[in-house]
Amino acid sequence: MADDAEGPVYYVVSDLHIGGDDQLGEVDFLEELLDFLERLETTDEDAELIVNGDAFGLWEFTEVERLAKFEALTERYPELFEQLRATGASIPITMLPGNHDHELAAYDEYVERLAAYNVDLVRAESITRPVGDRTVHFEHGNQQDPNNRFEDFGNPYETPMGYFYNTHVTSRAGRLSERGRYNWLKDVQAVTPTERVPRWLFSKYFYREMNPLLRYAVIPFLLLLNVSLVIAVLAGLDVAGLWTMPVDTADAALARLGLVGEAVHFVLVVNAAIAGLLILVGIPLYFFLRDLRQTVDRFGVFETDLTVDPEEPYAAAAREVFADHPETAIFCYGHTHRPGVSEIDGRLLVNSGTWLKRFHHRDVVAGVLPPVFYPSYQLCVVRISADPAGVAVEFEQIEKTATTTEEITRIERLLTLGREPSPELPDRLVVGEPTATPPRDAESVPGR
Questions:
Q1: pLDDT at site 443
Q2: pTM of the model
Q3: For this UniProt entry, which segments traverse the membrane (predicted)?
Q4: Cβ(364)–Cβ(373) under 8 Å?
Q5: From CA 282, how far away is CA 122, in angstroms rounded?
């Protein structure tokens, strides 16, 4: 990747989440990260590496406190810190705190410790960098998330809701992960949005932890349950005299299949009986749950979702920055783990993604089986530089040496045939000269 225009070049990474209790300490991308840092060490560009928050998973350490967490990091990943020292001797490395490593902003000692490895820790919510006569705004993004916002930034005793989730759920998963088959539980930190965690847990139980004999016994019933629901409804119409089922024709067709037909007939009969019971119970239960949900909403028990919208709050925050600072060309954030770029008022809203494993939710092609969560890695580096037409943004995907194919079983692949994800990073974009920014609507800007 090269540009015709000269000037500073910024390489941006975020959401590495390095560290944590037990199994959370495994860094699947350590080799790739070391290679990337070594490459920057030898660059001839006027480059700066910006680590845009959540470099470390300090929230995920629950058995050590304060600077002992940093000592645990340096002892566990000595090659990483030595490479940071080497790369930082060649180009500036600037690190912003995120929510998972908010403690970096809370103690002066972290500035000194990281400076020893040639990393400049900026204890601020955001920074700006010049590109020609334009600027780039960087922030981690958790301040736009009500569940992870710090009203008193830098206060070590402030603990938003996300802190409790990570110390009680994520860290616990890291300690228990080895007990499961295939050591999968530690990946709970990669499941987004958080509302999907219960479905992900059930999916992993069904496809990984469940006794194989039990799993393969129930799969035929679950696959044909949708068909059985239709049969149950038609049977009810038949009993009511509103419609006559072609039973003889269906039985004759199944009889031609021999033992397979008999098996299908048995499954359909059992499923139809179960489906009928579900319909009888489900109709009154639906009205009861709807009334209960309306009551809960009326009292405002749950006023916010567990996770923030991946773009809308950041678009609003970007508009505010663009209005206050018209020279700003790019608003760059992380936090939501979703790499992407979009245009806002003639400028660019950029998400720097994550180096953690990502999961892609896929429903099965038939039946009522649990969804499948396909894993992938998008080791994402954002490159921001001057361009003859303005400021350019490029996404580079670092190739992952190890694959994740073994994490998906044959039955999961079969049940989602044709629905496999193929995630891609955005194309290169250039933002030109600033245009007039419409007045900011104060009511549309989230509270700071």
A1: 34
A2: 0.81
A3: 213-243, 263-289
A4: no
A5: 56
Q: What is each CA distance from 379 to 223, 309, 424, in whole angstroms?
A: 36, 22, 11
Give the number of C-alpha atoms closer than 13 A to the C-alpha of residue 154, restricted to the C-beta side.
12
C-alpha dist (Å) from residue 272 to 258, 265, 268, 279, 433? 21, 10, 6, 10, 65
Cα distances (Å, whole numbers) of residue 424 to 129, 338, 393 = 27, 11, 15
Separate counts of helices (H) and strands (E) for the chain: 13, 14
Angle between the N-to-C axes of helices 225-239 and 212-223, in degrees from 0 to 180, rounded to the nearest 10: 50
Per-residue confidence (pLDDT) for residue 227, from 0 to 100? 62
Are 10 and 129 in contact by the 8 Å Cβ rule? The answer is yes
- Token pair for 128: 């700006």
Q: What's the pLDDT at 439?
A: 44
CA distance 166 to 76: 21
Give the whole-angstrom CA distance, residue 36 versus residue 32.
Answer: 6
- Percent helix, strand, coil in the chain, to 5, is 45, 15, 40
In whole angstroms, what is the distance from residue 34 CA to residue 329 CA?
Answer: 30
Domain segments of the chain as ranges: 9-207+306-444, 224-299
The domain made up of 9-207+306-444 is a member of CATH 3.60.21.10: yes
Short-list 359, 398, 441, CA closest to 194: 359
Lowest mean pLDDT among 31-45, 87-101, 388-402: 388-402
Spatial separation of the C-alpha atoms in residues 56 and 36, rounded to whole Å: 17
* Those residues with Cβ within 8 angstroms of residue 207's Cβ, 6 or more apart along the chain or in another chain: 215, 370, 372, 409, 411, 412
Rounded Cα–Cα distance for residues 104 and 109 (Å): 9
- Return the ∠ at Cα 377 (arms to 371 and 381), rounded to 5°: 140
Written as one string, the DSSP assignment of 67-127 is: HHHHHHHHHH-HHHHHHHHHHHTTS-EEEE--STTGGGGT-HHHHHHHHTTT-EE--SSEE
Q: Which residues contact 405 (CB under 8 A, 6 or more apart)?
A: none
pLDDT per residue as tens digits for the range 392-432 = 999 999 988 766 656 888 899 999 999 988 888 999 999 98
Instruction: Return the bridge partners of 340, or none.
Output: 351
Higher per-residue confidence, 179 vs 75:
75
- Whether the CB-CB separation of 25 and 73 falls below 8 Å is answered with no
